[in-house]
Amino acid sequence: MTFRSTIITLYPEMFPGPLGVSLAGRALEEKAWSLETIALREFGKGKHKNVDDTPAGGGAGMVLRADVLGEAIDSVGQDTRPRLLMSPRGRVLDQQYVRELADGPGAVIVCGRFEGVDQRVIDARGLTEVSIGDYILSGGEPAAMILLDAIVRLLPGVMGNEQSGTNESFETGLLEHPHYTRPQEWEGLGIPEILTSGNHKKIADWQREQAEKLTKERRPDLLLPNKKES
Ligand code: SAH
Q1: What are phi and psi of 17, to 5 degrees?
Q2: What CATH architecture does domain 3-152 belong to?
Q3: Does the domain formed by 167-223 have CATH 1.10.1270.20?
Q4: Which of 69, 85, 168, 173 qualifies as a FRET site for 98, CA 20 to 30 Å off?
């Protein structure tokens, strides 16, 4: 089954962009996922194909028009995919949410610009707001790319080594342990001896300890009981 993504954006030329190379790019070629862009400008009004206007009630910036965005969303047609709006007000993306989306049929993703979008279209088209973190981007496109990048690597068959998905930061509820590779000695620094011992049980115990230590130091919030991984 292909994960189908449809992106509604003022800047379709930004896609696939970084999603066209490496792991995601190969997965796109191999049809593990599909990407369709809908150019918001095509639904613009008047000679200048306006998509935005000044905010009701005054204030800075511009707002994407409800009618323009509504028509763009309706052009996708009805299907079972969730309709998402990239938005700093949304549910903050985490690995659990990424997994939920990756297990579904795909997503229709609306990218905001300017001050944001008319509230009526959010309500009337049932858009779920998704944030990628507590900071403000200039537009939803990079946020949509981050969302898709995180989803695509979880799709069946995408990651060469199926194992390598399960031990990562967050998947275990912990930050990941440190990694080492060649050379054995670099600038006078060696590799923790245990890793060269060949004792797999001891190595696993060490990695677990390191992960717990790091998580305690850097992200104690992840250890709270209400932050349970699925
Ligand atoms: N005025 C808005 C910010 C608008 S930023 C506010 O204060 O909440 C312009 C667009 O960038 C938004 O509509 C959204 O689509 C996108 N965007 C900005 N920051 C984002 C974030 N943290 N997560 C997801 N999308 C974001």
Answers
A1: 55, -130
A2: 3-Layer(aba) Sandwich (3.40)
A3: yes
A4: 69
